[in-house]
Amino acid sequence: MLGVRRAGVPVRRGVRGLRALGRVRLERIVWQGGEIAAEHLFLHEGVIPNTQISLALQLAHHWDEAQLCWQPSIDEWGRTSLPTIAIAGDGAGIAGAEAAALSGRLAALDAAAALGRIGEAERDRRVGPIRAELARERAIRPFLDALYRPRDSVLAPVDDETIACRCEEVTVGQIRRDRRGAGHADSRHRHLPPARAVQADHGRGAGGNGRCGIAAGAGLPNPVS
């Protein structure tokens, strides 16, 4: 941000009701109380784990309320509900680049012990400094998760015309109408029409928003799997 300010780029805070408008391509951005001509728009509402592979493997997952996303359930070594598979790094939960590398070292040590390349005593002896460094890297995470928590309007947009999946041009309203009264809120459900089968390709922007939006529209808890 310091570089942005030094370059003279204006920064507007507290923006609400953001809309991207244009006929064939982006022409302007409009928000409550202002607008500006634009050719490019980059949106970011936080990073969440890509769970496509872990879900395809039918590993156990849990909902993380702090990061508002599904995460694979792992133990202290990164082991999943399938004994032969471990997950390290951002695929198991967002904690930063250094923490991702450190969790990989934990998983590697455990794998070496499981394969008989080192003993469990050696594994446990070498893991102490790694765990201490990992704890330091993760210490700030609760603060960051609270400070940059996505707004409810991002997870479950009120406007039915909001695009939930830009690949299929599916709106939030279409998803809600498809699943309202169905008794669950799984946007990946096989009974959805093809254009409504919102995948997790874009994190919060597609699968995540789809499931949160459906739950809100159906009056269900957020989230429901």
Walkthrough of the structure:
- The protein has helices at residues 2-6, 52-56, 97-114, 120-138, 141-147, 152-155, 172-179, 207-217; strands spanning 19-21, 28-31, 34-37, 61-64, 69-72, 163-165, 170-171.
- The strands form three sheets. The protein has a three-stranded antiparallel sheet with strand order 1-2-3, with no helix packed on it. Strands 4-5 form a two-stranded antiparallel sheet. Strands 6-7 form a two-stranded antiparallel sheet.
- It has three domains: 2-37, no CATH class; 52-146, no CATH class; 153-217, no CATH class.
- It is elongated, with a radius of gyration of 21 Å.
- It is an alpha+beta fold and 225 residues long.
Features:
225 residues; alpha+beta; 3 domains; three-stranded antiparallel sheet; two-stranded antiparallel sheet; 8 helices; 11% strand; elongated
Short description:
The protein is α+β, with helices and mostly antiparallel strands and 225 residues long. The protein has helices at residues 2-6, 52-56, 97-114, 120-138, 141-147, 152-155, 172-179, 207-217, and strands at 19-21, 28-31, 34-37, 61-64, 69-72, 163-165, 170-171. It folds into three domains: 2-37, no CATH class; 52-146, no CATH class; 153-217, no CATH class.
